[in-house]
Design brief:
The complex is a heterodimer of chains A (about 120) and B (about 180).
Chain A (H helix, E strand, L loop, with lengths): L2 H6 L5 H12 L2 E2 H11 L8 H13 L3 E7 L9 E6 L1 H29 L1
Antiparallel strand pairs in A: 1-3, 2-3
Helix pairs in contact in A: 2-3, 2-5
Chain B lengths: L1 H15 L4 H25 L1 H26 L5 H18 L8 H20 L10 H4 L2 H12 L4 E3 L2 E4 L4 H10 L1
Antiparallel strand pairs in B: 1-2
Classes of the chains: A alpha+beta (about 120), B mainly alpha (about 180).
Chain lengths: ~120, ~180
């Protein structure tokens, strides 16, 4: 996917951005992603289970994440927990969004510095 | 408490069965497992935390369910949306009160979700969607339109004007037309 093609997928929603960011460091199962999104957003983004899984489905279909396998530790009810990992495309999307957000902040800082001067 | 948790999990399990079969096959077990873990963790904190967790879950559910069906162009919803949207479209354009062209069907459907959002505001202000201005939140139209925006976070273009991140009857009709 070229840079221009990547740009057409932006901007990401806050939920998608935090989900990709959560998977950037390591593969995680659904519950861990939800918890991590909560802590990354300092409690602002609280994902319900159905929101989490419909979003996961969407980014799985887009090829931004992939199933990585099963967590060796099952959940409390004994169900196996499937884990997800960021794909190369997902990483590039995340990087492109981060660059976009950085450029917004830079523009805002320049403008507010200009107003103060 | 164990009984209540069992009951909540059972009800949620039944609700998950409303999703399209492909979704259930792929995520059914997983989603129920995560929900059970979430409600147990919330119950461990406090009763109000459990109430907020359940409310949030049941609040988001109808919109997400509708979205899954509409994305797949599922047959179950098509006759209902086609007729209701066609009827409601005229009504909406006559009153001219709704900037996002909410159809009567979507409006009624989301009134339930909107009321849950409102109720959650009273229970836990922090859990309320942070991007909303509290002043705006007290208008029913704002609540419902914001609920739709939250559920459909993608851009839609209507003939003649870009309506932004809002679900519209044009989109429903477009989806039906495609399917």
């Amino acid at each position: 996917m070229t840079f221009e093609e990547l740009q057409t997928r932006l901007p990401l929603t806050e939920t998608t951005f935090f989900m990709l960011l959560s998977l950037a460091t390591s593969e995680k199962h659904g519950y861990a992603i939800a918890k991590d999104v909560g802590s990354l957003s300092k409690g602002r983004v609280v994902l319900s289970t159905s929101t989490l899984y419909t979003a996961l489905k969407r980014i799985l279909e887009d090829g931004w994440i992939a199933r990585a396998g099963e967590d060796p530790k099952p959940d409390e009810s004994g169900r196996p927990r499937k884990t997800y990992t960021l794909t190369e495309l997902g990483r590039r999307i995340l990087e492109a969004e981060t660059i976009r957000l950085q450029s917004l902040v830079t523009i805002a800082k320049i403008r507010s510095a200009g107003e103060q001067a | 408490m164990k009984r209540i948790l069992g009951l909540i999990t059972m009800v949620y399990g039944m609700m998950v069965k409303l999703f399209p079969s492909e979704f259930q096959e792929e995520f059914g077990d997983e989603i129920q497992g995560v929900f059970a873990t979430m409600v147990r963790a919330a119950a461990g904190r406090s009763k109000s935390a459990l109430a907020v967790a359940c409310l949030q879950e049941f609040r988001d559910f109808p919109i997400l369910l509708l979205r899954e069906y509409l994305e797949k162009g599922h047959e179950k919803f098509i006759p209902l949306t086609t007729s209701t949207v066609c009827l409601a479209r005229g009504l909406c354009s006559q009153t001219g009160s709704c900037p996002c062209e909410c159809s009567l069907f979507v409006f009624l459907f989301l009134a339930f979700t909107g009321s849950l959002y409102r109720f959650q505001l009273f229970l836990d202000r922090k859990a309320f969607y942070p991007g909303w201005d509290l002043h705006d939140c007290f208008g029913w139209r704002s609540i419902i339109c914001s609920a739709v925006q939250r559920a459909y976070p993608f851009r839609l273009v209507c003939p003649g004007r870009d309506i932004g991140m809002v679900y519209s009857p044009s989109y429903i009709l477009h989806t039906i037309h495609i399917s």
